[in-house]
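Question:
Write out your own:
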Amino acid sequence: MAPLPHNNTDLVIVDYSQGPRNHSFEVRVDTLSEIEAIETVIGAFLVAVGGLVGAAEITAVRGQAAGSNISLPFPISSLVGTTFGVGTTNNETVPFFLNFVGRSTGGRRVSLALFGKSGSLSDYRLTSSEETEIAAAVAILNGSEGTFLAIDDLPAIWYPYANVGVNAYWQRKQRT
């Protein structure tokens, strides 16, 4: 399959901070015009997964139209200032991340990662049958129409688990 350009779809970019560290994640959507509905679904996802990540605050929400390389802040965002997660991140958990993965109905891979995974790494995968937070988050990912799409602008089928990993960049930052 030939690669598609990163700006193939409309994007919502959510910036968040965990202590002094700033992160972002992207959500592909079918249209940016329904921002209230999009933010409701993103907020529900963050509440669902919140028990598995350290406390974080959303600092900005930006939109990027398909075909554009420029993202602009949403003038009024109900998510900015919202907190999610529990406890605090520490030097040990900074590089840990939680990564949801799936495939579009067209066969394209899709993923969504959040930094600051709290708790142990166990076997580096949390399934829906092990964690109610994963089951709730995957249900939202799979049940949201027009949100959490793949790069080919098709709905994704999200797998019933989230991978847990250690990010090499943040791991190296902890060593200095």
Q: What stands out?
A: Residues 10-175 form one domain. DSSP finds three helices and ten strands in the chain. The radius of gyration is 16 Å. The first strand starts at residue 10 and ends at 18.
